[in-house]
Amino acid sequence: METTITFSVNGQPRTVTTDPERSLLDVLREDLQLTGTKYGCGEGQCRACTVLADGKSIAACITSIAEVENQSILTIEGLAKGKQLHRVQEAFLAEGAFQCGYCTAGMIMQAVELLADDPKLAKTDVAARMQRHICRCGTYPLILKAIHRAAV
Ligand code: FES
Ligand code: FES
Questions:
Q1: Percent of the chain residues past pLDDT 70, beyond the cut
Q2: Per the structure, how many domains does the chain have?
C-alpha cells in the first residue's frame, strides 16, 4: 500500500507517494535523482550512503522513507552554496582524500556532523567516529587529515 510522505531535502519541501518501507536511499537516488549518495552494501555496514536527518548522520540504505517523515534531510548535493564548496569538501580536495571516490560523500557527511558537534575537534576521537565508514581504497590517513584541516 502506497503512502504519501512529506519531508525536506536540502532545504526543499518534498512529497513522495510510495511504499513506506522503501529505503530513503532508493527514494533519493531513484525518485529525486540525487545520486551523490552512494549504494555500497545496502546493509548498514559501509556507510557510503550516509546523509544527515535533522543534523544526525544515518545510513540511508537501512532507513525507511516513513522514518524520515517531517524531517530535514541533508545530502552531499546540499552542502555547497552556489559555487562555494563547504569547507569539508574544500579540505577533502586540498588533501586529495579519495581515489575512486565511492565512499567520499558518506565520509564528508559524517565529517560535517562531527565538526558541527565539535568544531575544533577538541574532544573528539576522529578515527573512532569515522570507524564505521569503509574506504576500499584505503585512503583513511588522508581522510583523517582532511577532517582535521576542516576544523576551525
Ligand atoms: S550502503 Fe548503506 S551502509 Fe552500506
Ligand atoms: S576512495 Fe575508493 S572507496 Fe574510498
A1: 100
A2: 2
Among 52, 76, 100, the domain-final residue is: 76
Domain that holds residue 137: 87-150
pLDDT surpassing 90 at residue 37 = yes
Helix axes 104-117, 140-150, angle to 10 degrees: 40
For residue 136, give the ligand nearest its CA: 2
CA–centroid distance, residue 51 to ligand 1 (Å): 11
Residues 72 and 9 in one domain: yes
In a domain, 118, yes or no: yes
**pLDDT tens readout for residues 45-77:** 999 999 999 999 999 999 999 999 999 999 999
Same domain, 17 and 51: yes
**Of 45, 139, 144, best ligand 2 pocket probe by most atoms within 8 Å of the beta carbon:** 139
3-state secondary structure string, 131-146? CCCCCCCCCHHHHHHH
Rounded Cα–Cα distance for residues 102 and 5 (Å): 29
The whole-model pTM stands at: 0.97
